[in-house]
UniProtKB/TrEMBL annotation:
Name of the protein: Polyphosphate kinase
Required cofactor(s): Mg(2+)
Gene (UniProt): ppk
NCBIfam families according to UniProt: poly_P_kin (TIGR03705), PRK05443.1-1 (NF003917), PRK05443.1-2 (NF003918), PRK05443.2-2 (NF003921), PRK05443.2-3 (NF003922)
Keyword terms: ATP-binding, Kinase, Magnesium, Metal-binding, Nucleotide-binding, Phosphoprotein, Transferase
Active site: 517
Enzyme type, top EC level: transferase
Organism whose genome encodes this protein: Streptomyces vastus
Listed EC numbers: 2.7.4.1
Role description: Catalyzes the reversible transfer of the terminal phosphate of ATP to form a long-chain polyphosphate (polyP).
Residue ranges of every copy of the Polyphosphate kinase middle domain listed in the record: 205-380
Binding site residues for ATP: 128, 550, 646, 674
Length: 774
């Protein structure tokens, strides 16, 4: 949460107890003694910092001793108390993902959602489903084809999962199209935004678009014939295409041709003020097709769209240069096999059979739909300047601990952090005046000697990248770990990695076989005779644009333990280090899963002993079987377990003798819930962690992830109140049942709308600035 003191919109929790560690013997991590750990951290690791400048670490050695987790060792394995866990205890992850996208669709179907936001949710649904087919369905098909697919944790055979996906996605796509055709498009028309087809245009509008076609569209079109001299053309993934059948009037022979709809042109063209027509309708107008095929008789035309396997497979163990290997794989991605064929439901059977045969698509992979296809084009419509049809505008403010006080100059973030930690909650707290300002100040401060930074995703015009370049060009040591394997951002990340290298930054690409997904910044600053370390640990990417749309948590701190942990972790990422244990961090793939499971198991012991015990988790996805089994055993022991999940969830809550003490909720809205928070009752001394990791195999086994322990009692209380609010029955959310079905709870028994946690947080910020909504 933003506030380091309290939140005003929920009842206050009892005062948090002391955070002092229990005095137990320090654990040996297996390769270094406690004394050696202390000596190692007596000097910072900042590369070739100007050695002639005298310095010491601005913390006594005792401050840097590892947090004492030895008492958790006995909880790493479950104690066996409780009934045997049943075989069918996991929900299917693919079905759960489809259920998540159904919740997105429900927001589009909801008449209480602002109209242009409904159009936006229709586009999000379509975009989500595209990626699901490109990655999950494609991967499943590949595993079946190669014979390596195994029964899923839910007990389904791979073929059963695939058939379920085909059937369920067909239902959802039909419902999606109906929502557009029957609800959203007609209601947009009532508001003066008409999404029309070519036949609905007036003669004047058609004439205007004919001129546009001749001047701006026709020159970029390339009709591709199919005959013995012209093989069937390659159809790129997610492209929109016209299948055109023409006849030679002299020979009488029929021919097939394909015309690709140019992806760089606007999807909806304005025929006249407030009236928009799909680009493909303009291209396929009779007079326009005659321009494309002069002298031929155009018999029919149909729209179609192909989704291909666009996941990447880079054999890093055999790749001498990861950057070159990934660039080669990006080229291969364009030619992945098809996994879905969308066609207009009016398509001629002959044309459909031709497409199926040439694309090698099964009947089950064909999706006939009413036009227009590809409703991701509604993103453009949703951006129309009609604020009355959108969520009320919200502009994030500066966190009050970083706000300017009686000064026209920017606040000194380092001075603020020396006073106290700052807990940020984006987008309610401004990213630009907190994290971005932290890095920009570090780049220009002459006393800053080094900056170390992870970048997973960022924007093309990122001020974060600019700040790192400025820092390197001013002579600072700048280490940037760019994750070039971030899915669908690979090409952009390669571009920015090279730009950073050219500016003099030390750019590394992480560890072989692992993605670096943790969100970390470390600044080393000369302060008199000492070096101080300032840190940022977050749940979201360093992406200024998505920071306005994604809900994330971040901690800015001058804490010596966190700084030492980040130094160690960056050394592991950039050099050779076998460190696996930290003071205030849990780091995947070594300690994060075991650390969380040990804490979940410990809650069961607290409950049996009559001490306060609970588990509250907020994540994007919850599918890791080991973590879920720990939650089941905690529930069997009587521990109340709350799981707030945005997307996939394999937990089966509410099952007698297994999970009757587990509740699962989901919140979707104007912001994408993205933070990951883990809270434990801990016998009356609450413990709260947050960070980058979701509870998935890829996060816990194949990524570098980091969680940070929240030390400030007020910060712990704020995050605990956030979790309580999200799980409250008085808050609008979806509830998961033991059968895997989600039920929306948006109104109470009297039909009154339940409170929306995101709107509550917005209103709390507005009240603080004197701009609360009525």
């Amino acid at each position: 949460m933003q506030e380091s003191r309290s939140l005003q919109f929920v009842a206050a929790l009892p005062p948090a107890s002391s955070d002092a560690p229990v005095p137990v013997p320090a654990r040996n991590n297996g390769f270094m003694t406690q004394h050696e750990v202390q000596v190692q951290h007596a000097q910072p690791s900042v590369g070739s910092i100007a050695a002639h400048r005298p310095h010491t670490v601005a913390a006594v050695v005792s401050d840097l001793e590892p947090d004492l987790d030895a008492d958790l060792d006995v909880y790493e394995e479950a104690d066996g108390v409780g009934a045997q866990l049943p075989q069918n205890r996991f929900l299917d992850r693919e079905r759960s993902w489809l259920a998540f996208n159904e919740r997105v669709l429900e927001l589009a179907e909801d008449p209480n959602t602002p109209l242009l936001e409904r159009a936006n949710f229709l586009a999000i649904f379509a975009s989500n489903l595209d990626e699901f087919f490109m990655v999950r369905v494609a991967g499943l098909k590949r595993r079946i084809a190669t014979g390596v697919a195994t029964r899923s944790a839910s007990g389904l055979q791979p073929r059963e999962v695939l058939e379920m996906i085909w059937a369920r996605s067909r239902e959802l796509m039909a419902r999606h199209a109906a929502c557009y055709q029957e609800d959203v498009a007609p209601e947009l028309a009532e508001e003066g935004i008409h999404l029309v087809r070519w036949g609905e245009l007036t003669e004047k509008e058609q004439a205007r678009l004919f001129t546009l076609f001749r001047n701006q569209i026709f020159p970029v079109l390339t009709p591709l014939a199919v005959d013995p001299a012209h093989p069937f053309p390659y159809i790129s993934g997610l492209s929109l295409n016209l299948a055109v059948v023409v006849r030679n009037p002299i020979s009488g022979h029929r021919h097939f041709a394909r015309v690709k709809v140019p992806p760089l042109l606007s999807r909806f063209l304005e025929a006249s003020p407030g009236r928009y027509v799909p680009l493909e309708d303009v291209i396929s107008a009779p007079a326009h097709l005659e321009e494309l095929f002069p002298g031929m008789e155009v018999l029919e035309h149909h729209m179609f769209r192909v989704t291909r396997n666009e996941d990447l497979e880079v054999e890093e163990d055999d790749a001498e240069n990861l950057l070159q290997a990934l660039e080669k794989e990006l080229m291969r991605r364009r030619f992945g096999p098809p996994v879905r064929l969308e066609v207009e439901e009016s398509i001629d059977p002959y044309v459909l059979n031709l497409l199926r045969r040439e694309l090698k698509v099964s009947e089950a992979e064909v999706y006939p739909l009413p036009g227009p296809l590809d409703l991701t084009g509604l993103f453009g419509i949703s951006r129309l300047d009609r604020p009355e049809l959108k969520y009320p505008k919200f502009v994030a403010g500066t966190h009050r601990d970083l706000a300017e006080v009686e000064s026209a100059s920017a606040p000194d973030i380092f001075a603020a952090l020396r006073e106290h930690d700052v807990l940020l909650h984006h987008p309610y707290d401004s990213f630009s005046t907190s994290v971005q300002a932290f890095l920009e100040q570090a780049a220009t401060d002459p006393d800053v000697l080094a900056i170390k930074q992870t970048l997973y995703r960022t924007s093309g015009d990122s001020p974060i990248v600019d700040a790192l370049i400025d820092a390197a060009e001013s002579g600072k040591q700048v280490l940037v770990l760019v994750e070039i394997k971030a899915r669908f951002d690979e090409q952009a990340n390669i571009k920015w990695a090279r730009k950073l290298e050219e500016a003099g930054c030390h750019v590394v690409y992480g560890l072989v076989g692992l993605k670096t997904h943790c969100k970390l910044s470390l600044v080393v600053r000369q302060e008199g005779e000492t070096l101080a370390r300032y840190s940022h640990v977050g749940t979201g990417n360093y992406h200024p644009k998505t920071a306005r749309l994604y809900e994330d948590i971040g901690l800015l701190t001058a804490d010596a333990q966190v700084g030492a942990d980040l130094s160690d972790l960056f050394n592991r990422l950039s050099g050779y280090s076998r460190r696996e244990t930290y003071r205030r961090l849990l780091v995947a793939p070594k300690s994060l899963r075991d650390g969380l499971i040990a804490r979940i198991n410990k809650e069961a012991q607290h409950h049996r002993a009559g001490r306060p015990a609970y588990v509250r988790i907020k994540v994007n996805s919850m599918v890791d079987e080991a973590v879920i089994d720990a939650l089941y055993r905690a529930s069997q022991a009587g521990v109340p377990v709350d799981v707030w999940v945005r997307g996939i969830c394999a937990v089966r809550p509410g099952v007698p003798d297994l999970s009757e003490n587990i509740r699962v909720r989901s919140v979707l809205g104007r912001f994408l819930e993205h933070s990951r928070i883990f809270a434990f009752g801990n016998g009356g001394e609450p413990e709260v962690w947050f960070g980058s990791a979701d509870m998935m195999h890829r996060n816990l086994d194949r990524r570098i992830e980091a969680l940070v322990r929240v030390k400030d009692p007020a910060h712990r209380a704020s995050l605990s109140r956030l979790l309580e609010t999200g799980m409250s029955d008085k808050t609008s959310s979806w509830h998961l049942g033991p059968d895997g079905e989600w039920t929306r709870h948006a109104a109470d028994g009297d039909g009154q709308q339940l409170r929306n946690v995101q709107e509550m947080l917005i209103d709390a910020r507005r009240r603080r600035r004197g701009k609360a909504t009525p």
